[in-house]
Amino acid sequence: MKKYTIWIKVLLPVVILSAMLVTVFATPALRRVFLKENTQREAFVPDPQHRFSETEKAQLSSIFRLYAHLDSCTKLYISGVFSAVDHADSLANISQEFIFSRNGNEFYYKIGSTEMISLADAFITISHDAGKIIVSRPKKLAAPFQLPMDTLFKVWDNENYRVHAGISKGDSVVSLTCANHATCKEYRFVFNPETLSLKENYMRLTNLRDPFNPDMDKEVHTVITSWKEDYVNGKILDMGSYLSGSAPQWTPAGAYKDYKLVNAF
């Protein structure tokens, strides 16, 4: 479960990965990677009897419009609060503010005391708790996984989800629920139906050790408080905000000048 915990703490709040969540939990092979499902135990899968009605398919189409819009936002700034409540282990509960910014193929992530900056020339990780700034070779971070709409329809259609849609305070609310699902019993998306800006993302994850007990599930909730399209905060995506000099003889700069540099370039 270590990899799963790291993923929840660091990657999930990044809103660009909201689309990834759709793909990860809809795809059994990816679920096994992220959740480290025990393939040796007896399979725990829903009885695949329900198929999406035409109404449900129409309701789901709004999610895929949201999914496509997220992927098309090459300039985006988002902030909000990410929380995870583990009903099986209260020590694993998390509540952190986060920031995400994208400018083309460059990305900035911040959650709690950790920052990650993916630039064309370097990948920077900052731990404020440890007082360290780590610089390594650039990593290619793709935009969210792209699966054709028909593929996602088929995957979800085979996993016994029911679709529910409605309006709350002017926002669209679309959820997929399956009370006995192997890994994710509920997805819920709240978004502006006109601008397709995401407001909330919620998941109820099955406790793999006690899958039939809903009181042991983990609830993961992302609330967006600021959403700015076609906006770039140049400072947080500027190498000079973090490092001075040139590769590989960098030194910490600005607010990080007293941090210990770990050069993994």
Automatic annotation (TrEMBL):
The lineage of its organism: Bacteria, Pseudomonadati, Bacteroidota, Chitinophagia, Chitinophagales. This is Uncharacterized protein. It comes from the Bacteria.
